[in-house]
Design goal:
By secondary structure, the protein is mainly alpha-helical. It folds into two domains: 405 residues, Up-down Bundle (Na+/H+ antiporter like fold); 238 residues, no CATH class. The chain has 26 helices and two strands. α3 packs across α10 and α3 packs antiparallel against α15. The radius of gyration is 29 Å and the shape is elongated. 37% of the residues are buried.
Length: 677
């Protein structure tokens, strides 16, 4: 049970960190997750978890890198092959030798092989942390592709260099020639084993399908086990399991591209499942990292032979040396050659800002700390490993410093240009809206069957009309700008007036409690999708309490109850809606004149005209209208997913994402308002 509770707490921290990120967008999510892990560990009855490096690599690093390999742009990877190799291999070994000698000179108590090991484990960068920062500060896409490619490869090169350095510390012997040959064999072997194993697994999946085994759940299980198989097989053969996982991901992406027209639904299922897994694993990596830090700090700070101020100063100096070396490395290879895919003449210099962003983006992460924890406790002769606790402490502090420095200084170099005018931002919003509508159309297409073709065509037709009408799209964007908040406030006031009117009719016994409860439930859902964050939590609690009461009292769901309503109940609810709409309109007409008021009044007038039509009511949740409503919800969810995906891929800013989400909420509220009309 203890392990079960530990997992629950860790998952809760991951969820809490993403809730907090919405409230404090200026703080990177990895930093929040590390802080939450430290708080949980430092509490009086705190959570403690021993970090098993081998288990950590196979359980977290292998599937994350496999997923990165699946989604990395192979075109960009090839185009940026020179700078990627220079950073992922060349810079790693330059870091090992230059920073390693500097660490040994600065801290003589750390033997040279151990100093090389510390420098090696500090060389891998963490693309997850950089990606989190990029979603907030919009790094150039070319730089992001470079960082992604670097992170895919430098984990392997850094860990191989670390392995040889620690072996030298344990045995007291080291051969540069042997280490160089071994590195090539381990790297090339890892790529080869990963590619061959991935092809074999793909062949097995094809054979299973040809044998009639089309169960998507079983095929999804094969997908989930693939990265672990790639990593473990490669490690058993003595080659790089990390590069094997990356290569397997790339092979899977190639196979997917070839088969994309055959099994689109299975690909969508795979993407949705992997998105959940990656979200959880990314969060757990940093929460677990935070769990380790209090014990690491305590062990060093309680050591009487170490000066606390001195060891912190050592960590700061090491971080600055890594930063300067990375900047100089990028600068030296940017003159007269290719850097981030751009040809430059010998007399043309890459901008300082781009070089500074390249240097600051070298954020260290969980691989660094896991590698440090893998240092053995004893040497081969039985003596304690020299300065093991200090090495782990320095690694942990450098991780924190790299995250903080990137979050503070990267925005200074990645600011939007001055010519990013309101018109350009509006254009970005229009582009984003067309993209999310396209995602909704694809989702409805994927959910289309022979039984719902007509309803699917109706929903798709609506989205196609919205997407292909740029004039209406422009007008909606212009009205939605400064009046968006005012319109939501007016709609919430109108809903409150509807609620008061319904309560008044209930007190006068002109409607039954069941009719009032169903009507109020619909209003609560509309309030939730329209409310700002400050009111949303209160409304959610209220809605959950209502749902819990319904479960405890064994009330039927609102949708099922609507299907079972008698004709008299339907007429009563229709009349109730007419009266509440009229009350809301009377209230709205007393508000000051503005575009927002006109839009809300138009919405209620349209609703009244439908309610008073003799053919409008009683069909909304029967037959094809119920199916159409389900497809509308699928489209709405696809829009939300696409907004999050665009934001994570650094294609839209947070402001644009928030505006698109408000548009989706408005569309959702409109659907909800039609459930009872």
């Amino acid at each position: 049970m203890e392990l079960f509770f530990t997992i629950l707490i860790l998952l809760a921290m991951v969820g809490l960190s993403n809730v907090l990120s919405g409230q404090f967008p200026f703080v990177p999510v990895p930093l929040m997750q590390i802080a939450l892990g430290m708080i949980v560990a430092a509490a009086p009855a705190g959570l403690h978890m021993h970090l098993e490096p081998e288990l950590f690599f196979v359980l977290f690093i292998a599937p994350l890198l496999y997923n990165d390999g699946k989604h990395v742009s192979r075109t960009e990877l090839w185009k940026l092959r020179v700078p990627i190799i220079l950073l992922a291999v060349g810079l790693v070994f330059a870091t090992v030798f230059l920073i390693g000698y500097a660490i040994h000179w600065m801290i003589p108590s750390i033997p040279l092989p151990v100093a090389f090991g510390l420098a090696a484990i500090l060389s891998p960068t963490d693309a997850v942390a950089v990606g989190s920062l990029a979603g907030r500060i919009r790094l150039p896409s070319s730089l992001m592709h470079l960082l992604e490619g670097e992170a895919l490869m430098n984990d392997a090169s850094g860990l191989v260099a670390f392995k040889f350095a620690i072996a030298a510390a344990l045995t007291g012997s080291f051969s540069l020639a042997h280490a160089s040959v071994s590195f090539l064999l381990i790297a090339i072997g890892g790529i080869g084993v990963g590619a061959v194993t991935a092809l074999l697994i793909s062949g097995v999946r094809v054979w299973l399908r040809r044998s009639g085994l089309e169960d998507e759940t079983m095929h999804m299980l094969v997908h989930l086990l693939t990265p672990f198989a790639l990593y473990l097989i490669a490690e058993q053969l003595g080659v790089s399991g990390i590069l094997a996982a990356v290569a397997g991901g790339v092979v899977h992406a190639i196979e997917r591209d070839r088969m994309s027209s055959i099994k689109p639904l299975s690909h969508e299922l795979s993407d949705n499942t992997w998105s959940v897994i990656v979200f959880i694993l990314n969060g757990l990596v940093f929460v677990i990292l935070g769990l380790q830090l209090p014990s690491v700090f305590k062990q060093v700070f309680d050591e009487p032979s170490l000066n606390n101020g001195a060891v912190i100063a050592y960590a700061v100096v090491i971080f600055l040396m890594l930063l300067v070396l990375r900047f100089l490395w990028a600068y030296s290879f940017s003159r007269g050659g290719r850097w981030i895919g751009k040809k430059t003449a010998s007399n043309v210099k890459i901008k300082f800002g781009m070089l500074a962003m390249t240097a600051l983006s070298g954020v260290r992460g969980a691989v660094t700390l896991a590698g440090a924890f893998s240092i053995p406790l004893l040497l081969d002769n039985g003596a304690p490993f020299p300065e093991r606790s200090l090495v782990i402490f320095l690694s942990a502090v450098v991780i924190l410093l790299s995250l903080v420095a990137a979050s503070v200084f990267l925005p200074l170099f990645a600011q939007q240009p001055a010519e990013d005018t309101a018109a350009e931002r509006a254009a970005a919003e229009r582009k984003g809206e067309r993209l999310i509508m396209g995602a909704a159309i694809r989702a409805v297409h994927a959910a289309t069957t022979e039984d719902n073709e007509a309803e699917s065509a109706s929903v798709i037709s609506d989205y196609e009309r919205w997407r292909s009408n740029p004039e209406e799209d422009m007008r909606r964007m212009q009205l939605r700008g400064k009046d968006d908040l005012e319109e939501r406030e007016l709609r919430l006031k109108a809903i409150e007036e509807e609620r008061r009117t319904a309560n008044k009719l209930l007190r006068e016994e002109r409607i039954t409690e069941m009719q009032a409860a169903m009507f109020q439930s619909n209003l609560e859902q509309m309030s939730m999708v329209l409310s700002a964050r400050t009111n949303l939590f209160k409304l959610l609690i209220k809605f959950w309490l209502q749902e819990l009461r319904a479960v405890l009292t064994k009330q039927e769901s609102r949708i099922k109850a609507m299907r079972d309503l008698s004709s008299s109940d339907r007429d009563a609810i229709r009349n109730l809606k007419v009266q509440t709409c009229e009350a809301a309109l009377s209230s709205l007409r007393t508000e000051r004149k503005c575009d927002a008021r006109a839009a809300v009044i138009g919405h209620y007038e349209h609703m009244l005209s439908r309610l008073k039509s003799p053919y409008s009511f009683g069909k909304s949740l029967e037959g094809d209208e119920e199916v159409r409503r389900d497809l509308q919800w699928i489209a709405i969810q696809a829009e939300r997913d696409e907004v999050q995906s665009l934001f994570e891929r650094n294609e839209i800013t947070r402001d644009v994402a928030d505006k698109l989400r408000r548009t989706i909420r408005t569309r959702e509220a409109t659907i909800l308002s039609e459930v009872l009309d």
